[in-house]
């Protein structure tokens, strides 16, 4: 994931980096951002009055605190995936409930990111970040104490709201605290590294917690971290605010959040209410209508939250589509492999965390390689290769069975998927930002961030619902004929709704003479879940292939003049002292 790239690119292109040594530092920062992945931020002004901390120790202490706050927010995006099977079994929910646990956070986080960044610029970034940290901690307590799916989902949605208050402030504070060029470059590199750390330690830490405690622990762990971050922020992080703040497009924010939420609701709840039911169709239609009004409003307002005119530029819109499709596939893939490892293969949470480590490693390896390839061949061929690699990963994932060997069948699909995402993200972001003049970098950043988050949210919704539809359709007839003396209506409803109920079926005490029937039922449940996953994998494979074809046809091949600041370095091996990157 690579949301921070665009803001850093604007920073490195500014007059703050003059001279070859500073340009070299800028290259290191851009490579670091590309390496670490998704960091959704709003565009930042770097002309604010700097907040100086006289001593180097004070500056780096503030950096450590800011990175801790950032890590807390990023971990909440990764650690909860490991707990989904336990939450599903203990709270007796189906696939749709688990989809909402993931999407409730990303929907509110993405929808309020720019608004909270504006509030930080206006009222003080440290203040807004502190409020966000307190809110994340309080809502984590609420989630940990919840005994219903509604409570967990509500807590996750509220956590996303407060996480949106934390994240934009982190980079803005770093830019204002570190005014010396070299220190600023190193500080930003440390900031970007938090994404890679979160991807790596999220599944492992979540797996360890669930190995020793209940699913509530993935919420409780946030509380002491948030408390330490709040105290440290108040002690060691200086206040910072922007000299000038633009008007906030509240109507645009409300329309976009409402429209996307209704569409996601229709997709997630479609298997439950029926795809052609009045409820599903009405929710989807209303969602699309609100988004249409949103587009009209954004085209007319003088201060849009999302500049829709930019989508008329091919070198902007097609890479944005590639990013959206990439994150659609990646978020959906992560949701599916969680159910595969813990439901179908019956891995423990810790075993799943260890098994998923190659995914994080492959993202880290692929991103810098993609950047170097883009310098030599241009962004278009690299984006196409990345999308096709993702397609290979999903196709391979669609072939796995219950007994597929991990090293020869499962691992290659994870590695290909992760490499594909890593290869797409950096060059696509470069193309987006390189297609715009520097003074429109903020608008490009907003689109870049939005497409990622919306793509990821829809990935969980669409692919998860495909699995749910296949599973429910195939299992319902088998479950309905089970005598009530063996399985009551509530238990039947759970087994029909979620393949993760395999875990409950396995541990449920039954008379010995029913063991054979139980194994037959579990085998059927796993088979139905795999059929749904295979269908979802084919849909995602088709999506990335179509996107790859569109990019290959409509974007120019080879290194383009002015394609991006990063690619421009290869053309200027001996830049003049007064030139920019």
TrEMBL record:
<dbReference type="GO" id="GO:0005886">
    <property type="term" value="C:plasma membrane"/>
</dbReference>
<feature type="transmembrane region" description="Helical">
    <location>
        <begin position="218"/>
        <end position="238"/>
    </location>
</feature>
<feature type="transmembrane region" description="Helical">
    <location>
        <begin position="157"/>
        <end position="178"/>
    </location>
</feature>
<feature type="transmembrane region" description="Helical">
    <location>
        <begin position="250"/>
        <end position="268"/>
    </location>
</feature>
<feature type="transmembrane region" description="Helical">
    <location>
        <begin position="318"/>
        <end position="341"/>
    </location>
</feature>
<protein>
    <submittedName>
        <fullName>DHA2 family efflux MFS transporter permease subunit</fullName>
    </submittedName>
</protein>
<feature type="transmembrane region" description="Helical">
    <location>
        <begin position="128"/>
        <end position="145"/>
    </location>
</feature>
<feature type="transmembrane region" description="Helical">
    <location>
        <begin position="353"/>
        <end position="374"/>
    </location>
</feature>
<feature type="domain" description="Major facilitator superfamily (MFS) profile">
    <location>
        <begin position="62"/>
        <end position="560"/>
    </location>
</feature>
<dbReference type="Pfam" id="PF07690">
    <property type="entry name" value="MFS_1"/>
</dbReference>
<dbReference type="GO" id="GO:0022857">
    <property type="term" value="F:transmembrane transporter activity"/>
</dbReference>
<dbReference type="InterPro" id="IPR020846">
    <property type="entry name" value="MFS_dom"/>
</dbReference>
<keyword id="KW-1133">Transmembrane helix</keyword>
<feature type="transmembrane region" description="Helical">
    <location>
        <begin position="274"/>
        <end position="297"/>
    </location>
</feature>
<feature type="transmembrane region" description="Helical">
    <location>
        <begin position="96"/>
        <end position="116"/>
    </location>
</feature>
<feature type="transmembrane region" description="Helical">
    <location>
        <begin position="535"/>
        <end position="559"/>
    </location>
</feature>
<keyword id="KW-0812">Transmembrane</keyword>
<keyword id="KW-0472">Membrane</keyword>
<feature type="transmembrane region" description="Helical">
    <location>
        <begin position="381"/>
        <end position="398"/>
    </location>
</feature>
<dbReference type="InterPro" id="IPR011701">
    <property type="entry name" value="MFS"/>
</dbReference>
<dbReference type="InterPro" id="IPR004638">
    <property type="entry name" value="EmrB-like"/>
</dbReference>
<feature type="transmembrane region" description="Helical">
    <location>
        <begin position="29"/>
        <end position="48"/>
    </location>
</feature>
<keyword id="KW-0813">Transport</keyword>
<feature type="transmembrane region" description="Helical">
    <location>
        <begin position="60"/>
        <end position="84"/>
    </location>
</feature>
<feature type="transmembrane region" description="Helical">
    <location>
        <begin position="185"/>
        <end position="206"/>
    </location>
</feature>
<keyword id="KW-1003">Cell membrane</keyword>
<dbReference type="InterPro" id="IPR036259">
    <property type="entry name" value="MFS_trans_sf"/>
</dbReference>
């Amino acid at each position: 994931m690579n949301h921070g790239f665009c803001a850093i690119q604007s920073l490195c292109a500014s007059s703050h980096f003059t001279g070859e040594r500073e340009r070299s530092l800028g290259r290191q920062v851009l490579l670091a951002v590309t390496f670490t992945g998704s960091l959704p931020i709003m565009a930042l002004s770097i002309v604010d009055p700097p907040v100086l901390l006289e001593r180097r120790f004070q500056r780096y202490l503030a950096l450590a605190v800011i990175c801790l706050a950032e890590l807390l927010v990023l971990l909440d995006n990764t650690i909860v995936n490991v707990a989904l099977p336990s939450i599903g079994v203990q709270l007796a929910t189906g696939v749709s409930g688990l989809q909402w646990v993931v999407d409730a956070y990303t929907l509110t986080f993405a929808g309020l990111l720019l608004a909270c960044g504006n509030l930080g610029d206006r009222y003080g970034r440290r203040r807004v970040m502190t409020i966000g940290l307190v809110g994340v901690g309080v809502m984590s307590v609420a989630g940990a104490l919840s005994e219903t799916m509604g409570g967990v989902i509500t807590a996750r949605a509220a956590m996303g709201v407060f996480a949106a208050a934390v994240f934009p402030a982190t980079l803005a504070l770093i830019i204002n605290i570190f005014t010396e060029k070299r220190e600023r470059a190193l500080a930003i590199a440390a900031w970007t590294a938090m994404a890679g750390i979160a991807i790596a330690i999220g599944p492992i830490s979540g797996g360890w917690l669930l190995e020793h405690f209940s699913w509530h622990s993935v919420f409780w762990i946030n509380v002491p971290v948030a408390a330490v971050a709040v105290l440290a922020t108040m002690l060691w992080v200086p206040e910072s605010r922007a000299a000038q703040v633009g008007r906030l497009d509240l109507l645009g924010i409300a329309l976009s959040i409402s429209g996307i939420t209704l569409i996601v609701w229709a997709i997630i709840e479609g298997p439950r209410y029926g795809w052609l039911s009045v409820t599903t169709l009405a929710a989807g239609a209303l969602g699309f209508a609100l988004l249409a009004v949103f587009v009209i409003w954004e085209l007319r307002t003088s201060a849009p939250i999302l500049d829709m005119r930019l989508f008329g530029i091919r070198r902007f819109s097609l890479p944005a589509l590639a990013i959206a499709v990439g994150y659609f596939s990646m978020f959906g893939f992560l949701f599916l492999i969680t159910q595969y490892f813990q439901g179908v293969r019956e891995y423990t949470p810790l075993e799943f965390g260890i098994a998923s480590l190659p995914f994080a490693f492959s993202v880290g390896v692929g991103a810098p390689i993609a950047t170097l390839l883009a310098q030599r061949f241009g962004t278009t061929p690299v984006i196409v290769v990345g999308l096709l690699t993702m397609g290979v990963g999903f196709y391979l994932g669609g072939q796995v069975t219950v007994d597929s060997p991990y090293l020869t069948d499962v691992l290659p699909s994870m590695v290909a998927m992760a490499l594909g995402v890593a290869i797409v993200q950096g060059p696509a972001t470069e193309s987006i930002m390189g297609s715009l003049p520097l003074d429109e970098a903020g608008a490009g950043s907003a689109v870049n961030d939005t497409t990622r988050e919306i793509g990821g949210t829809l990935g969980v919704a669409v692919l998860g619902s495909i699995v749910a539809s296949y599973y429910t359709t195939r299992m319902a007839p088998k479950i309905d004929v089970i005598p009530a003396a063996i399985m009551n209506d509530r238990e039947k409803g759970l087994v029909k709704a979620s393949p993760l109920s395999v875990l409950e079926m396995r541990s449920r005490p039954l008379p010995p003479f029913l063991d054979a029937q139980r194994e037959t039922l579990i085998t059927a449940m796993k088979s139905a879940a795999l059929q749904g996953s295979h269908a979802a994998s084919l849909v995602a494979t088709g999506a990335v292939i179509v996107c790859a074809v569109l990019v290959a046809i409509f974007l120019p091949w080879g290194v383009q003049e002015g394609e991006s600041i990063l690619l421009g370095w290869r053309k200027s091996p001996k830049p003049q002292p007064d030139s920019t990157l």
